[in-house]
Amino acid sequence: MSPQATDVLVVGAGPAGARAALRAQACGLDVLLVDENHDAGGQVWRPIPPGFARASGSARSPEARDGDALRAELRRAGVRCLFGHKLWNVGTSLRADLIGPEGVVSWQPRALIVATGTTERVVPFPGWTLPGVIGLAAATILLKSQNMLPGHRTVVAGAGPLLLAVATGILKAGGEVAAVLDLASPGDWLRTLPLLASRPDLLWLGLQWQARLRAAGVPVLYRHGIRSVEAAGSGFEVRTQRVDASGQPIADATAPVFAAEAVTVGHGLVPGTDVTRLLRARHRYAVELGGWIADADAEGRTSVAGLYVAGDGAGIAGAAAAGAHGELAALACAHDLGRLDATTHARERDRLKSSWRQSARFGHAMAGLMALRDGAVAGIAPDTVVCRCEDVTRAEIDDAARDGARDMNQLKAWTRCGMGPCQGRSCGDVAGALLALHVGSREAAGCFTGRAPLRPVSLSEVAGEYTYADIPIPKAAPL
Amino acid sequence: MIYDAIVIGGGVMGCSTALHLARGGMHVAVVDRGPLCREASGVNAGTLTLHMTRAALVPYAMRAWQMWMDADKWLGMGVLATHVPGLTLAFTEAECELVELRAAARRAQGAPIEVITPERARQIEPGLHPGLLKAGYCEIDGFASAYLTGRAFGHALKRAGVDVIENAPVEAIDSGDAGHLVRFAGGAREPLRAKRVVLAGGVWIEPMLAWLGIDIPIKVLVNQLIVTERIRPVMRSVLSVANGLLSLKQFANGTVLIGGGWQGEGDRERGGVEARPHNLVGNMRLAAYAVPALAEARIARIWLGLEAETADALPIIGDVPGVANAYVIGSAHSGYTSGPFMGRILAQHILGQTPDLPLFEPARLVGLPMPGA
């Protein structure tokens, strides 16, 4: 079946993608907005799943309000959306192959805006793969979309603003927080204050969260991380450890142990580069922006003609900045496709850029708190599983490197690290940091080559209904 | 310092040649523009079958099959080579004829292939499609995990004292009475001297031969490969179809690899560029037709590997015509299967011994036009 045509295809309907689609449509472009979820909002403004309703009497959070407003705006503007569709392949012509309830569909856009957000990073520790140990992002999905607690009593650990958001979310939902373990020090947070001042509303929210934790008597341990999680009775015993500024564990027998039913842990967010790596766009490593990102200009133009990136997937700057970034990419598309004259483009672009800079200041401060800490990687114990799909330990990664694996693809081939169903999204960043310890830098280690499918798809989804006669068998190989 | 031999191209054939030369007493270097075995030798389907081997290569493939099975003995590290039976399937009358014809041709070359009933085929492989009409059956078959090849050869080469020089693209060879000078791209490294050179660059042997002024066309096939997530055991043999356009096996880890040479986009200059969606669909349909339980498996990864083919679709292994002490090796159909043995016989030739089986004279290909070109 030949692909359907559109001017712009936007992948991901979070704040960046949705705003990009709205803006592109306003510029007169024919737009298609695609997301694997059932509605727009992305992770930050996650829609409530079909069949669920907000608990009666519970107040809508600011995020739920923003999400509802965005969804309403998309509907008002009549943006063509394909929700519940998984993008599984992109051709070099930017042809997007999707799988939805109706089967395989392909679209051929003139420009592709990738706004696929981030994946959460977990710096592994013994026990991180136990059921009941989940990411901070996973906890926010439970809390936001279904008002579910990860467990009644939960340890919240890691780095960045999600710590406070999740901990207070748990309290609000009626749960108990055993402790908050933060790799950062109070000083790290204080240093972000001048940047936070650009967003008094969010600063105020942060202070409210802190107050709420204090009122609930939740212990907040700065410069602490998880040493190990072990099953104990029907829950876990969570051993903690002090860490230095680099995240490196400090031997200290007095670090407390907590009992909990669940652990939620995250060490920052990693930009999703699956599509740009698949299309062989140039990438660069920027630890302060989350890791490997497509090398793009301020408007999201990558090294591949017609391919744009927007939002946190282009480098972490936060949800507030993502919208402006999406609009910038849409404007650039409209300009590059000849639908927007240079003067109008320049005027609108400059206005958006200043708004983006304002919001990104806050986001960048948060991204800094969430950046991967060298010492945390160096401190991973040898027998700790790094690639959970394939059970590859740190020791096996170190062995492969000593055996001569010099880049991520070789590491993958020799250890199967990154070959499982997560396709390297969970382990790739930390494995890259471990390999970099041997080869000198993240740039030298590189990243996994992007491969289709962008998400696992079943043979039956791709193959569809057929008989033997429908298989276009090529002519026989030579005998 | 002058090497006895420099092998350019660190795939299976180059590595095996280098290893056997070193074990024959030569001082050898292997040079590759990337890491060892990261092109065809590391990304192919790992099929160790006679069902897809060109009939003339069956005696070579059978010897190589044994070398793969014994890899931990002569390489010191295995590639998870696994001995299972192989079946080639026929679902139409025309395919039944093809199976008979091809089995007979390979049998004539020594492959123990017989044609069996669907009932017997299902005793060997219970998950087969009920529409099966006939099958070719060969007890000698199996598979390896090709992605481990570079690690295994890297070990063996270093232990044999071979200098392994990776990520070092060569741009020219100056050949004269004093031997060869191997020059690196952009002068990034000091040139290396050798008494002999071996060109073992897979699809890139065409431009490599051009360094020496030899024009032999080499066709580039861009093979698509598909691997599933780990799934419950659904098959225990290596499967192919009558015309050779399917290879299917389930590894011990539960993943199922689907190949067979369905073509993607790409070329010698750019490598594998992208899969062709209709060829993915075709390959997946054929796989899920052969073993219906595969329909629910999820695809984890799709990639491309380049395969080389000469004008007569037989290998090019032997002396570079008109250039003293220069050799070439490559373009064996199902080259991964036969590769270790091909390297061994070229090394025997270079060392002045009689090869276990005859080489494939490169001179025959000079001026031979590529069919369809």
Topology:
The complex is a heterodimer of chains A (479) and B (373).
Chain A: E1 4-11, H1 15-26, E2 31-35, H2 62-77, E3 81-83, E4 86-90, E5 96-100, E6 103-114, E7 118-120, E8 133-135, H3 136-146, E9 153-158, H4 162-172, E10 176-182, H5 186-191, H6 193-196, H7 200-215, E11 220-222, E12 224-232, E13 235-243, E14 249-250, E15 257-260, E16 262-266, E17 269-271, H8 274-278, E18 283-286, E19 291-294, E20 307-309, H9 319-336, H10 342-370, H11 374-378, E21 385-387, E22 392-393, H12 394-402, H13 408-415, H14 428-439, H15 442-445, E23 457-458, H16 459-463
Parallel strand pairs in A: 1-2, 1-6, 2-3, 6-20, 8-16, 9-10, 9-16, 10-11
Antiparallel strand pairs in A: 4-5, 5-6, 7-17, 12-13, 13-14, 13-15, 18-19, 21-22
Helix pairs in contact in A: 1-2, 1-9, 3-4, 4-7, 9-10, 12-14
Chain B: E1 2-8, H1 12-23, E2 28-31, H2 40-43, H3 58-69, H4 71-74, E3 82-83, E4 86-90, H5 93-108, E5 113-116, H6 118-124, E6 134-138, E7 142-143, H7 149-159, E8 163-165, E9 170-176, E10 179-184, E11 192-199, H8 205-211, E12 219-228, E13 238-241, E14 247-250, E15 256-259, E16 265-267, E17 271-274, H9 277-290, E18 298-309, E19 316-319, E20 326-330, H10 335-350
Parallel strand pairs in B: 1-2, 1-11, 2-8, 4-13, 11-20
Antiparallel strand pairs in B: 3-7, 4-6, 5-6, 9-10, 10-11, 12-15, 12-18, 13-14, 14-15, 16-17, 19-20
Any descriptors?
A: 479 residues; alpha/beta; 7-stranded mixed sheet; 5-stranded parallel sheet; 16 helices; 23% strand; globular; B: 373 residues; 8-stranded mixed sheet; 20 strands; 28% helix; 28% strand
Textual characterization of the structure:
- The complex is a heterodimer of chains A (479) and B (373).
- Chain A has 479 residues and is α/β, with parallel strands linked by helices.
- Chain A is 36% helix and 23% strand.
- Chain A has helices at 15-26, 62-77, 136-146, 162-172, 186-191, 193-196, 200-215, 274-278, 319-336, 342-370, 374-378, 394-402, 408-415, 428-439, 442-445, 459-463; strands spanning 4-11, 31-35, 81-83, 86-90, 96-100, 103-114, 118-120, 133-135, 153-158, 176-182, 220-222, 224-232, 235-243, 249-250, 257-260, 262-266, 269-271, 283-286, 291-294, 307-309, 385-387, 392-393, 457-458.
- In chain A, the strands form 6 sheets. In chain A, strands 1, 2, 3, 4, 5, 6 and 20 form a 7-stranded mixed beta sheet that branches. In chain A, strands 8-16-9-10-11 form a 5-stranded parallel beta sheet.
- The longest helix of chain A is centred in the C-terminal third of the chain and has 29 residues, at 342-370.
- The mean pLDDT of chain A is 95.
- Helix content of chain B is 28%, strand content 28%.
- In chain B, a hairpin with a 6-residue loop joins strand 19 and strand 20 (326-330).
- In chain B, helix 1 runs parallel beside helix 7, helix 1 runs parallel beside helix 10 and helix 3 crosses helix 10.
- The longest helix of chain B is centred in the N-terminal third of the chain and has 16 residues, at 93-108.
- Chain B is elongated.
- The N and C termini of chain B lie far apart (43 Å).
- The mean pLDDT of chain B is 96.
- The interface between A and B is large, with 45 and 61 residues.
- Strand 23 (457-458) of chain A pairs antiparallel with strand 18 (298-309) of chain B, so a sheet runs across the interface.
